[in-house]
Amino acid sequence: MLVPAIHFPGTCQQAINRYKEALNAQVINIAYERDAPSDSNMHANGTPDHVMHAELIIAGTRLNMCDVNDDVTNGNMHLYNIFMDSIDEVRTAYEQLTVGGKIHKKIGPQFWTSMYCDIEDAYGVRWQIMTKE
After folding, report:
1. Domain that holds residue 43
2. Total domain count for the chain?
3. Is the distance from CB of 67 to CB of 16 less than 8 angstroms?
4. What is the pTM of this model?
């Protein structure tokens, strides 16, 4: 499943509130950095009120959103999430898409999924690839 995503520089909650009013967005799930396990390294930046992950439905389409501590500006905030059936599929995509690309987060398990990576391919497209569970 391919899901578009938007990264925000600390303004994700404000965007969610605006999209709920302006676009009748439905919030399916929202988790804040304070909700992450203490050993997850999600607390390192001292931003407990940042949105770690949000899922919205806008006009029948799923959209993922979160705050990041990377240098995001208007124009480079968009990326795609791909949810794959197996760890092997995630590994294959990682191995092929990192050729000539850039690794933002090395492949490995995370507390929310068995395998995850965050990469930018050789064409400048950013992908977060993970298993479905």
Report:
1. 1-76
2. 2
3. no
4. 0.78
